From TrEMBL:
Disulfide bonds join 39-44. This is Dihydrolipoamide dehydrogenase. GO terms for molecular function: flavin adenine dinucleotide binding; NAD(P)H dehydrogenase (quinone) activity. NAD(+) binds at residues 186-193, 273. The lineage of its organism: Bacteria, Bacillati, Actinomycetota, Actinomycetes, Micromonosporales. Binds 1 FAD per subunit. It comes from Micromonospora mirobrigensis. Belongs to the class-I pyridine nucleotide-disulfide oxidoreductase family. Residues 3-329 form the FAD/NAD(P)-binding domain. Its cofactor is FAD. It comes from the Bacteria. Coiled coil: none annotated.
Length: 467
């Protein structure tokens, strides 16, 4: 029987374990924090639960427009302890669900910290395990090892988090109350999501963005649309501003920018990216190649350069999403256990930024098209003309579609809208299944619906014979 040892129990690790158990392997997952990993316990799941509370507050905005009288947003109060309690409860419950699922599938789940042992020059790898809460280190033999150790918030040496005023995104749920004035350092996806959620909850937010717009890696039209919404709702956004240092003051924090300006607030959230958890695993000693930044180098079936040692998820830096981590983990096990497997394809991975409004993307990007790397026709359709959007008083979103110039094959799209995460699916299906704009356009959608704008955009891209 194949013996699989998986280091790390996040989406990469636990989804891999489920596949390997299904294929009758003897599977052990060693996890330092808890089933579900950082994704479930401190990153993705908690942040989305927190955002869910912020959306409840948003529901009280602009009720007059709908003919509903209320005391307005000012009368809404957010009980931070209750919100944080819910965040932690849901995370632990999700972790327990995953733990139960693994155990039910026959996986041995070990609470501990693991690393590779000495290279034994054979077909068996040795994984050394230090149990959580003490106990002797012991070793497990494995025919296949999967490194799925995730990543950790990057720290700036001049802005060291103290868990009270200077925070990582993992520490915000321990605050006894909401910040009065939160300075978010870093306007990537993480910074933008938290800035959006705190703003919705009535917190004064300043976003320190090192680039000329927020979310520099996202579609420019979408990022700028969201930046406009942020500003209109009162967020202060400092573009082209790098934080050099963050310091505690008597009653808060001050953030020193590289141009010498100093911004004062009550709290600072440092969201300047992550670093892979690959130190201390014995990888280099074992001959596993690491790329720049300490990421484990893998191919599209999750192999490292060392036979029998695979890696998946954020520790590989391929595309730090839970969905991708999970697929990399499954692919590793299918490959290791001799199943037919399709190498990882990033082209059809949909991603969503959970700001208000949300920003979902799939397929080719505007930058690739603009740079001439991918020939494409495109259309951008504002939601303001959509009947359902008018009813819901949605003015800010849009749908963008990209297709191949001659065939009309759909190759990408962007949606900015509430619940864009749900609306992107038809475009993802079209990209995945090589559908054309004609096929999308001929699909009958619900009337009135926001998804009607997707087929409407497709109709605008249909080529007419006279053109
Ligand atoms: C704030 C935030 C929000 C996010 N939101 C989303 C989202 O909405 N959607 C989405 O798709 N992605 C989201 N992501 C990204 C997503 O969380 C990651 O891509 C995902 O967690 C990666 O999974 P993983 O299995 O690689 O690692 P992780 O989830 O990080 O799990 C790795 C686990 O390995 C453990 N570990 C590390 N070293 C060892 C060791 N030596 N021994 C034993 N255990 C070890 C760690 O303790 C950790 O629990 C978000 C990320 C952040 C930071
Ligand atoms: N909804 C989701 O799916 C979701 C949510 C959060 C994160 N993620 C994943 O995590 C990845 C990483 O996102 P992230 O936002 O954590 O990191 P990131 O690296 O994408 O963004 C960090 C930003 O901070 C900026 N920065 C760095 N140093 C700075 C300084 N001193 N002052 C001001 N700005 C500074 C960087 O220029 C960068 O724009 C995303 O690409 C995504 O794949 C996904």
């Amino acid at each position: 029987m194949s013996q699989i040892v998986i280091i790390g129990g996040g989406p990469a690790g636990y989804e891999a374990a489920l596949v390997a158990a299904q294929l009758d392997a003897d599977v052990t997952v060693v996890e330092a924090e808890g089933a579900g990993g950082a994704c479930v316990l401190s990153d993705c799941v908690p942040s989305k639960t927190f955002i869910a509370s912020s959306q409840v507050v948003t529901g009280y905005r602009d009720t007059e427009e709908f003919g509903v009288h209320s005391d307005g947003l000012e009368a809404v109060t957010v009980d931070a302890r209750a919100v944080h309690g819910r965040v932690k409860r849901l995370a632990l419950a999700q972790s327990a669900d995953i733990h139960d699922k693994l155990v039910k599938a026959g996986v041995s789940f070990v609470a501990g910290s693991a690393r590779l042992g000495e290279d034994t020059l054979g077909h068996t790898h040795r994984v050394l395990v230090t149990p959580t809460g003490g106990g002797e280190e012991y070793s497990i033999a494995a025919s296949t090892v999967l490194i799925a150790t995730g990543a950790t918030p990057r720290q700036l040496p001049t802005a060291v988090p103290d868990g009270e005023r200077i925070l990582t995104w993992r520490q915000v749920y321990d605050l006894p109350e909401l910040p009065e004035h939160l300075i978010v350092v870093g306007s990537g996806v993480t910074g933008a999501e938290f800035a959006s959620a705190y703003l919705a909850m009535g917190v004064q937010v300043t976003l320190v963005s090192s680039r000329d717009r927020v979310m520099p890696h996202e579609d420019a039209d979408a990022a700028m649309a969201i930046e406009r919404v942020f500003r209109n709702r009162g967020m202060s956004i400092l573009n082209n501003s790098r934080a050099d240092a963050v310091r505690r003051t008597d009653d808060g924090v001050e953030v020193e920018l590289s141009d010498g300006r100093v911004v004062a607030g009550s709290h600072a959230l440092i969201a300047v990216g992550s670093i892979p958890n690959t130190a201390g695993l014995g990888l280099s000693e074992y001959g596993v190649e690491l790329a720049r930044g300490g990421y484990v180098q893998v191919d599209r079936v999750s192999r490292t350069n060392v036979p029998g040692v695979y890696a998946a998820g954020d520790c590989t830096g391929v595309l730090p999403l839970a969905s991708v981590a999970a697929m990399q983990g499954r692919i590793a096990m299918w490959h290791a256990l001799g199943e037919a497997v399709r190498p990882l394809r990033l082209r059809t991975v949909a991603a969503n930024v959970f700001t208000d409004p949300e920003l979902a993307t799939v397929g080719v990007s505007h930058d690739e098209v603009a740079a001439g790397k991918v020939p494409a026709r495109q259309v951008m359709l504002p939601l303001s003309g959509n009947a359902r959007a008018k009813m819901d008083d949605l003015a800010d979103g849009f749908v963008k579609l990209f297709c191949r110039p001659a065939s009309g094959q759909v190759i990408g799209g962007v949606v900015v809208a509430p619940k864009a995460s749900e609306l992107i699916l038809p475009i993802t299906m079209a990209v995945e299944n090589n559908l054309t704009v004609n096929e999308l356009a001929q699909t009958i959608t619900i009337y009135p619906s926001l998804s009607g704008s997707i087929t409407e955009a497709a109709r605008q891209l249909m080529l007419h014979e006279l053109e």
